[in-house]
Amino acid sequence: MCAIPYPTNAGELQQFVCAVNWLRDSMTEYAQTVDPLQQCLTKALEGKGKKKRIASGVQLELTDGEKLAFDAVKSKLRSSVELSHPRDDATMCLFTDASDHGWLIVVTQVVAFDDDSPVQEQRHELLLCQSGMFAGAQKAWSVIEKEAYPIARACEKLNYMLTGFKMYCDHKNLIHVFAPGEEWKAHTRGKLMRWAAIIGGYRYEIIHIDGIHNLWADMMSCWGQPTPSLATKRVKILRGHGWSKNV
Q: Pfam families this protein is in (predicted)?
């Protein structure tokens, strides 16, 4: 797939997008990267239907930006990380991120997690990557709502995996919403309270981390290797079996 040329019709583009979609969980920021191609495909097939026979008859020529997106997806295919199987004896780590346009969820596990070492120096094994674009009313959400969404989504959709985990968050305001044991603030909006209620049913430790973009970029470009120092702040721990009680 990494050697195929740029598509010349909607059928070829449709086939490529559908094929790489099978591997989306092993690629970071997949949705954001493939979005220009998805928009191109949607526009090309508007009012024509999505059957392969019809799509193959719709000629198209990718713009420079769409070619960059096509090449970026193939690059992610080449560097995609092999997913590991969850282990009961490992520490689960949840990393999330959001921009104005999309969100990212990454779940890793660390066997023999060293509490005295920074998170970026742990030996992470990738379990899952998910990403998506904000759509409709979501585009008008506040920054804190967009940052909170992937955390709530992870806890709602990945409950089979996140039985106990460390949550790394780079948005300080979210700490007051999702820190275990914190009282809800009067000004906290309804949506955040609903999400906090979902997350409150889990056993987790929330940790503020500076520069999560650099952390994940380093971890993905040089998997399992030490990365530059990164300041973290331990906020609070929800006591539970197998978890430290120190704050």
A: RT_RNaseH
d(C-alpha 1, C-alpha 55), whole Å: 20
Which residues, at least 6 apart from 112, have a Cβ–Cβ distance to it below 8 Å? 123
Alpha helices in the chain (DSSP H): 10-21, 30-44, 52-55, 64-79, 143-157, 172-178, 190-199, 212-221
CA distance 19 to 24: 9
Does the pLDDT value for residue 104 go beyond 90?
no
What is the pLDDT, as a whole number, of residue 233? 44
Sign of the alpha-carbon dihedral angle for 69, 107, 118, 179 = positive
pLDDT for 169 equals: 80
- Domain 90-237: which CATH class? alpha beta
CATH 3.30.420.10 domain span(s) along the chain: 90-237
Q: Which whole number is the average pLDDT over 64-71?
A: 96
